[in-house]
Design a protein that fits this description.
The complex is a heterodimer of chains A (583) and B (224).
Chain A: H1 7-19, H2 22-30, H3 42-46, H4 55-69, H5 72-76, H6 89-99, H7 108-111, H8 119-132, H9 138-149, H10 158-176, E1 192-195, H11 198-202, H12 206-217, E2 222-223, H13 234-238, H14 241-257, E3 262-265, H15 269-282, E4 290-293, H16 294-303, E5 318-321, H17 324-330, H18 334-343, H19 373-379, H20 381-388, E6 394-397, H21 400-412, E7 418-420, H22 422-429, E8 463-467, H23 471-483, E9 487-491, H24 494-504, E10 508-512, H25 520-529, E11 538-542, H26 549-552, E12 561-564, H27 569-580
Parallel strand pairs in A: 1-2, 1-3, 3-4, 5-6, 6-7, 8-9, 8-10, 10-11, 11-12
Helix pairs in contact in A: 1-8, 4-8, 6-8, 10-12, 12-22, 14-15, 15-17, 16-18, 18-22, 24-25
Chain B: H1 3-9, H2 11-32, H3 51-59, H4 69-72, H5 75-100, H6 108-134, H7 136-141, H8 144-163, H9 173-188, H10 196-213
Helix pairs in contact in B: 1-9, 2-9, 3-10, 5-6, 5-8, 6-8, 8-9
């Protein structure tokens, strides 16, 4: 009788054979262990004493299963080719740490392999096998769940998305003093349907406004979809082809429903790759319309003189970081440079670049796997040195994931540099046509109830309970909220929070999740289940996105707000005002 | 020439080649039973080649050491690779020349060239063994198959260099060893890592097809 095998291990082996295609089989069979790939991996370069970071070693963790169960030599003389099976859940966990924690699927080793072995492709396949049996980092589980259930990977609700578009539209109208500038939603028969990354809604809504500004001045007939707007695709990171295909299908179907002629994908490396290149394959979909990156769109507008730009508006030295997905998997590397040279005066190339550029180290979903953060930041040393050598003040990238990865490493390695995107630079360089002076007509003043802008003190009379076990956060939140007129009560653990919420009946609770005693999830459920307190608005604040399941898995209505740490003053106030409907 | 040497250089080689051909045919059938993925995305990129061009580029990538960072920055290793594989080609060719075209070996220059190439490959083989044993990183990724393959080829190069003069009158030991090793090599190859050359056209074909369509091939790199 053979060695007993866990149910999950059994399923992984069963699915391995089904997932194999000729390309992957060849990549698994062809490695000669020459070691040439090693020096192309940023993990190896940052961890020279640990040979287990080598791409070929990592690949062998899947290859040994392939050899033991599929290839012939490994089935007959396994020891000779290091073929090995897998039996326990612990072994699956170890495999998880390799394929998720030690590789960002950046594909740099693939293009440097003399044999043409595509490590990144079968590393993704290994992820998919593990995900199919529920073995994955918590963050991957949470984000995948959001993308399956809510339709976007950050769990942005439809009303929040539409609110943000409306808010950005108002900001634009005010900023440009053009009342008819619009962010159209679900407009039929447009030339451009614009899809975005939910990160733009949650953390960087200005990029939506800036894109809208560019579309407006280009005279584009465009729209944003009310659903199926998330062009990111966690299926690429998790290796789940079903999710990948389903996410792509949502976008394609919505674009078809709107009879859009072209789907434009905002600046996001993995979103562009997934939407334009991979999802048609995952979902077996023949997409009937054109898809392009917003980088191509902006470049075309300038070339066709639809918009005018003045590069003298961007005079600081900038460098450009090629996203792995854009450059190494989609060949999008000359277009951003061409565009950049049209909108900045001082562009300094980093080295290596284009298809040979190093990963931002936040790719492959790494930003959502907080358990591997120390490793990620250590491996980011290579990127930090590369950035520093340019002497640039700004690093430009066409990828939201890279924005986060680079921002994190810039902070960690204390570089004097900021991250920005092409849309920001193009919008800044935009030459706004002067308004044609309208003939003076007698205007009839109609008194309207003006919407008061948010201002200091607008939280006066509001009682807010701040719950966090970190004294610094308590102090920071309290100061910001009190400066804006709120009355703040503090609690530093779950039990104290329950006591205070009962006593004080606040207008809002900002709630940390990971705390001593009762965790935030338990406190949240208590509030929601208490008849008197159930309506109290709650804003979850956490530095660990994987803990979101503590909230969403509970059989109670979701919280009114959600913030990822670190939270800055502006974000805190914006969200608090939004929840309390102030300003 | 003794009967033993005649057998080793003729019949043994033919049988070994036949076995190799059968096993390779089976191997090809095995490869082709896996489905090939269909690429549905529209072609992209400024550097994109037509599919045939990118596949050819991919196949000959290895002959362009400047194309990949891994070969560009480790030129000495690349040179070793070239010498080693030229040695393999020459040593295989020799196993056909001796039985079917021995007249070629009457030219001392040709014999000398073969010997120099095989001996150079032998030296590289030793360097590769040392590298594989001496480097912690290489040991971690190496299997018994990796060690045995390089050892087998290194010994084979040595005997190929000795067998090149085809002077059986002076002694047949080197020739016999060379032919028996060649036969073993032919039969053993399909089961070992040495069969990578059978996979190479496939891996490179698919990588070239995908990356060419996506405008990644041919590799464009910016200067420092």
């Amino acid at each position: 009788m053979g060695k007993p095998r866990s149910h999950k291990a059994e399923k992984v082996l069963e699915r391995l054979e089904k997932k194999l295609n000729r390309q992957i089989v060849m990549s698994l069979a062809a490695c000669v262990h020459c070691g040439n790939c090693s020096s192309s991996c940023h993990y190896v370069l940052a961890n020279p004493d640990d040979p287990t970071y080598q791409p070929s070693y990592k690949a062998d963790q899947l290859r040994k299963l392939f050899k033991r169960h599929v290839d012939w030599t490994g089935r007959v003389i396994p020891w000779f080719v290091k073929a090995k099976s897998i039996y326990t859940d612990e072994e699956l966990e170890e495999l998880k740490d390799v394929v998720f924690g030690k590789c960002t699927n950046c594909r740099r080793c693939s293009i440097n392999c003399p044999m043409g072995v595509d490590h990144a492709t079968f590393n993704r396949m290994a992820r998919g096998l593990l995900v199919s049996v529920g073995v994955m980092p918590e963050g991957v589980a949470v984000v995948s769940k959001d993308q399956w259930e809510i339709g976007n990977q950050m769990g942005v609700l439809k009303e929040d998305y539409l609110d943000t578009l409306e808010w950005m539209e108002e900001e634009l109208q005010e900023e440009l003093d053009i009342p008819d500038i619009k962010i159209p939603v679900d407009k039929m028969d447009c030339d451009v349907v614009y899809s975005i990354n939910p990160r733009e809604v949650k953390y960087d809504p200005r990029t939506i406004a800036e894109a809208a500004k560019i579309f407006h001045f280009a005279g584009e007939n465009w729209t944003m979809p009310s659903e199926g707007w998330d062009m990111t695709n966690f299926g690429l990171f998790s290796g789940d082809d079903d999710l990948g295909g389903a996410v792509g299908r949502r976008l394609y179907e919505k674009t078809e429903e709107l009879r859009g002629k072209k789907l434009v994908i905002s600046e996001c490396g993995h979103g562009y790759r997934s939407t334009r290149c991979e999802a048609p394959n995952w979902g077996k979909i023949d997409v009937p319309f054109v898809m392009e990156s917003s980088v191509d769109t902006m470049l075309r507008y300038i070339k066709e003189r639809k918009i005018k730009v003045d590069k003298n508006k961007n005079t600081e030295r900038v460098t450009f970081h090629d996203s792995c997905n854009n450059a190494r998997s989609c060949g999008l590397f000359e277009e951003p440079r061409e565009l950049l040279n049209l909108v900045v005066t001082d562009f300094q190339e980093m080295y290596p670049n284009r298809t040979e550029n190093y990963c931002c180290t936040g790719g492959g979903g790494a930003m959502s796997m907080s358990e591997y953060t120390p490793n990620r930041l250590k491996s980011a040393k290579i990127k930090a040195e590369q950035l520093k050598a340019t002497g640039a003040k700004y690093v430009v990238t066409s990828c939201h994931n890279c924005v986060d990865g680079l921002t994190d490493l810039i902070k960690h390695y204390e570089l004097d540099m900021k991250v920005t995107q092409l849309v920001n630079l193009v919008a800044n360089a935009l030459v706004i046509p002067e308004k044609v002076k309208e003939p003076e007509v007698e205007k009839v003043e109609v008194p309207v109830e003006a919407e008061a802008p948010a201002e200091a003190g607008d939280l006066a009379g509001r009682k807010i309970l701040v719950v966090d076990d970190e004294p610094d956060i308590l102090t920071f939140f309290s100061t910001v909220l009190e400066d804006n007129g709120a009355t703040v009560i503090q609690a530093s653990d779950g039990d104290e929070a329950i006591e205070k919420v009962r006593q004080e009946k606040p207008d809002l609770v900002t709630l940390d999740l990971n705390m001593p005693g009762k965790d935030g999830g338990q406190v949240f459920e208590f509030i929601r289940k208490d008849e008197e307190l159930a309506e109290t608005p709650v804003c979850i604040v956490t530095g660990r996105p994987e803990l979101r399941r503590l909230i969403y898995d509970r059989p109670v209505p979701p919280p009114e707000g959600y913030l990822d740490k670190p939270v800055d003053e502006e974000t805190l106030l914006r969200n608090v005002r939004k929840i309390l409907a102030v300003g | 020439m003794s009967d033993a040497l005649h057998f080793a250089s003729h019949r043994l080689q033919e049988v070994a080649l036949l076995i190799m051909a059968i096993v390779y045919t089976l191997r090809l059938r095995w490869i082709l039973k896996f489905p090939a993925g269909k690429e549905r995305q529209a072609p992209t990129g400024v550097g994109s080649l037509n599919p045939r061009g990118s596949i050819i580029y991919s196949w000959f990538n290895i002959a362009q050491p400047w194309a990949m960072e891994s070969t560009r920055t480790k030129f000495f290793l690349y040179l070793q690779f070239v010498v080693f594989h030229v040695g393999v080609t020459v040593a295989i060719g020799l196993s056909f020349v001796i039985p079917y075209g021995p007249g070629l070996l009457e030219y001392s220059t040709i014999v000398l060239v073969i010997q120099v190439l095989c001996f150079a490959a032998f030296i590289v083989g030793i360097m590769r063994i040392i590298r594989r044993l001496g480097s912690k990183a290489m040991r971690v990724i190496s299997s018994p198959d990796d060690y045995f393959a390089v050892l087998l080829l290194t010994v084979w190069f040595f005997f190929a260099a000795l067998a090149a003069p085809n002077n059986y009158a002076a002694g047949e030991a080197a020739l016999l060893t060379y032919f028996w090793l060649t036969a073993f090599f032919l039969i053993y190859v399909p089961f070992s890592k040495i069969s990578h050359y059978l996979y190479y056209p496939f891996t490179r074909y698919y990588l070239g097809k995908t990356l060419g369509r996506r405008g990644v091939y041919p590799i464009v790199r910016g200067n420092k």
